[in-house]
Design a protein that fits this description.
6-stranded parallel sheet, Rossmann fold, 10 strands, 36% helix, 300 residues, alpha/beta
Length: 300
């Protein structure tokens, strides 16, 4: 799998496999599995032309020059598993991560754990500066993810209603020092709806993924929509507010991760479980007034 959220979830599967097997993993994300290399995990580069991931590979060639093994090193007797999930698997097993375990031929453990170890070098001077700025403001730190679309994946169905999303964010914005993070590139990725105010905007993609993980870990709360951000917040132990649109809902995606850290789901009035990008029944309406009350209680 290529998705960052998917690979974070997959950590739980890999950890379980490592208890019994020697594991070779094809991936384009060294940072997600860096701590597991010390437990014997071996990585094989899975090339990709996806914009963010290709940039990540180039960065990691410098940071982790010896992380990837030669594909020819894999023993010939190795059993191959193509891990992943699909609608029927999610319906049968209950959630994305449980479907992953089934695909790998495993029963999920009682405590599914995809926590991510934040390495000291990820806490760069830039991350420290951001955290210091929040502290100097006298407000807790919030990481905010705008609603975006990207050319490479039709996430319009998954995205929440941008007007409702903005209203929910605005209801608590002034309580926090807000850092908005995105990787906006013309004709590649762009913000949906009006761009919201924040104390600091890092929208040029200049934060590396390890730095973003470190920033998430230092935040008091993450305000986000479906995608990578909810999984990363859970993986680093930071409370999050997740606003859903179509395609998925809390139960099918992030409910099990809520056992790792407090997670407030704002599902639509009629939560969707379709896991298809051509669903005609997704209704993104949210009871904003009720959601605002829940969000204020959560951050309090």
């Amino acid at each position: 799998m290529f998705g960052i959220g998917d690979n974070l979830h997959q950590r739980a599967v890999v950890v379980e496999l490592l208890k019994t097997y020697e594991v070779w993993l094809e991936t384009c994300h060294v940072w997600i599995y860096r701590d597991l290399l010390d437990s014997g995990l071996k990585l094989i580069l899975r090339p990709t032309t996806l914009y963010t991931h290709a940039r990540n590979i180039e960065r990691e060639k410098i940071e982790y020059p010896d992380a990837y093994r030669d594909l020819r090193s894999i023993p010939r007797s190795t059993r191959t598993v193509r891990n992943g999930y699909h609608r029927r698997g999610v319906e049968e097993h209950g959630s994305v991560i449980q479907s992953m375990f089934a695909t790998a031929g495993l029963s999920p453990p009682q405590h599914i754990d995809f926590r991510l170890t934040i390495r000291p070098e990820w806490l760069s001077s830039r991350v420290h500066t951001i955290v210091s700025s929040a502290r100097d403001s006298g407000k807790p730190l919030m990481v905010y993810r705008p609603v975006v679309l990207r050319r490479e994946w039709p996430s319009h169905l998954r995205n929440p209603d941008p007007v409702a999303y903005a209203a929910l964010y605005e209801s608590i914005r002034e309580r926090f020092y807000v850092v908005s993070v995105a990787s906006i590139v013309p004709n590649v990725e762009w913000i949906v709806g009006a761009e919201q105010p924040a104390d600091l905007k890092i929208h040029d993609g200049s934060l590396s993924m390890p730095e973003m993980a470190a920033l998430f870990s230092k935040a008091d709360v993450v305000f986000c929509n479906g995608g990578m951000a909810p999984v990363l917040a859970q993986a680093v132990g930071t409370p999050s507010i997740v606003v859903y649109g179509g395609y998925e809902c809390f139960d099918t995606t992030h409910a099990l991760g809520a056992k790792l850290t407090p997670t407030l789901p704002i599902d639509t009035d009629a939560p969707c479980r379709c896991f298809t990008n051509n669903c005609s029944g997704c209704d993104k309406r949210i009871d904003v007034e009720s959601a605002v009350t829940r969000i204020r209680e959560f951050v309090a």
